[in-house]
Design brief:
By secondary structure, the protein is an alpha+beta fold. The protein has one domain. The protein contains three helices and five strands; from the N terminus they run E-E-E-E-H-H-H-E. A three-stranded antiparallel β-sheet has the order 2-3-4. It has a two-stranded antiparallel ribbon with strand order 1-5. The radius of gyration is 14 Å and the shape is flat.
């Protein structure tokens, strides 16, 4: 029987973020890389949760469903998957398999 590793997502340990927001738009400057990232409200919500603690995908979707009760769970799950991939490719988030 094969054991499947569960991916945990966390803020990269070297990131030092500075946040600015205007209405539903967010900008995050990573002091260590010198990069500025423009984020949607969903991207910012997920990244903010990851700055507090590492999470698997499921609690992130649950937190979003609480914040947006009218949202569809399937759609939010797909959106969170996409957001996590984008945050990882931008160098803000690491994936750790447990």
């Amino acid at each position: 029987m094969a054991v499947v590793a569960t991916p945990f997502y966390r803020l990269r340990t070297v990131c030092r973020l500075h946040w600015k927001s205007w209405n539903d738009e967010y900008v995050v400057f990573d002091e260590t890389s010198g990069q500025t990232h423009q984020l949607s409200s969903v991207h910012a919500f997920v990244l903010h949760l990851l700055t507090e603690n590492p999470h698997t995908q499921s609690p992130l979707v649950s937190a979003l469903l609480l914040a947006i009760p009218s949202a569809d769970a399937f759609t939010l799950t797909e959106q969170v998957q996409s957001v996590l991939r984008e945050l990882e490719s931008s160098g803000l988030v690491d994936v750790v398999l447990s």
